[in-house]
Amino acid sequence: MGGWSRRDALAGLLAAGGHGLLGAAGAGPAAPALVRMAFIDPLSGPSADIGRNSLRSWQYMARQLPGPDARVRFLVAGFDNKGSPQESINALKAAIDQGFRYVVQGNGSAAAMALSSAIQRHNARFPDRAVLLINYAAMDPALTAERCSYWHFRIDADTAMKMRALTRYMAAQPGLERVFLINQDYAHGKQFARYFKQESLALPWSVQIVGDVLHAPFVLKDFTSHVRRIRDAGAQAVVTGNWGDDLRRLLMAMQDEALWLPVFAYYPALAGAPTVLAASGERLPVYQVSTSHGSRPEEVERLARGFRQAYGEDLVIMAAYDGIQMLLHAMAQTGSTDSAVVAARLEGMIFRGFDGPVAMRAVDHQLQKGVYISRWQKVGGSGAEGTGYAFVPVQHLPAAALTSAPGCQMERP
Q1: Handedness of CA 209, 210, 216, 217 (dihedral sign)
Q2: More confident residue, 16 or 376
């Protein structure tokens, strides 16, 4: 990073000329430029708790990260897409009409694809009102491959990267050969299972998939029958892309049935799951596969404490930190908040993520970021959701070991 810091970013804002909004050096005191960001994700329905926590994470980082002398301020407003691609398009139209030029979205790759396509069309028609999409969690690799767009930037690892990390870790565990897959019956769950099989086959690992279940998302109230099926199959581990209430209920059923198998998942740190896990301490060995973890640098831990004080919830969407830092850095270097100017600077840019330098790959706009395998365990502090437990890293795989060859043929304006 060459010693880059927020102070350098602010100095860049003061020194830069460019597209007027941030002003030029010697221009005297001026009100900070306001950057309005539309957060489009589920804020009602079965995954509303996750959506609201994510929105608050972005709003909190948008308030906390710009320094007191910053020449830019962020406003993050929530738009409820109800988990629907069509509702996402409706929300986008409303946001554009209200003057938003930055969109944040993450819960659902189908919604991400709908937004990316709609923004591509809008920007082609109205280049003077270009919109930039920041994808913080929608992991379909197609979004940065055959469906890539110049206006879409993903700041999470895609599911191929995460699954590569997961399968390599599992393959190295002695005697772990019988695996049960259980996932929600929609695009993410199907993709999770498909990539597990694909990445497993690429390894010297004699894994046997003893169950491969898809269930309707956010409908089941009791996973007992599935847990008994896992036991009867002789599984040695459970691998799931479930999240929200479906993951919480799966973990509860495993505890009720005293099935203490390792669980490997993407989302066990999301709201409510840590409290469920704490009911059995460490008896249920759960592993998280993520670009973040519970043992954070001091600056981020300070922010997490402030977030819990403000909202009574855990700060788990660390992509919000990366996203705001990314925009601050790009705006500092260009002296502009114009979305088209910022998009051009983001290509190939290196900036400081929550745990170190990261790079936005220019060819496909996929953030190059490592993945952590973390284990649920007792910690010295308050831990996740005040339980005294947290997800502590047991392995880190750098981006260079996980990334795929670019599959994007990007059309640039």
Answers
A1: negative
A2: 376
